[in-house]
Write a structure and sequence with these properties.
There is one protein chain. By secondary structure, the chain is an alpha+beta fold. The chain has a domain of about 80 residues. α1 runs antiparallel to α2. The protein starts with 16 loop residues before the first helix and ends in an 8-residue tail after the last strand. The relative contact order is 0.18. InterPro entries: Rab4/Rab5_effector (IPR052727).
């Protein structure tokens, strides 16, 4: 797949050193949480999408997009990586070059296998632990 916009359409992004570190830690935590969820999908679900929870929307080039179904008007529990991402996005500025008032993100990736994020409001997010192979 090709990205539909021309190269260099967005202006250069200016981040402070602290912002850069926070976004890098967030990206690493999201990647680790996503990989943990994928391991769960492969090991527990045997690579089968639960059709009761997810509705296929579109497929192209071996990539499928799903929309989560509502059960009695309520969404299922959000996977850890999405909850982490949504929480950080909702508490940080929509423009990284501007500081969001009172927003602070810290990340603990020290053990290399259990990433976690703590937001200024005291909310703490981390992926579920997956069994060792």
């Amino acid at each position: 797949m090709k990205f539909p916009l021309p190269k260099n359409i967005f202006p250069p992004l200016e981040l402070s050193e602290n912002q850069e570190q926070n976004y890098e830690q967030l990206a690493n935590a999201l990647i680790k949480a996503t990989l943990a969820e994928y391991d769960q999908f492969v090991m527990h679900d045997r690579k089968r999408v639960d059709a009761r929870r997810w509705k296929g929307v579109r497929s192209r080039d071996d990539v499928s997009i799903y929309r989560e179904r509502l059960v009695d008007g309520v969404r299922q529990q959000t996977p850890a990586s999405l909850a982490l991402y949504q929480s950080v996005i909702s508490t940080t500025s929509s423009r990284p070059s501007q500081n969001a008032r009172g927003s602070h993100v810290t990340s603990d990736l020290s053990d290399g296998r259990n990433p976690s994020i703590t937001l200024n409001g005291g909310l703490h997010f981390g992926p579920p632990m997956t069994p060792k192979k």
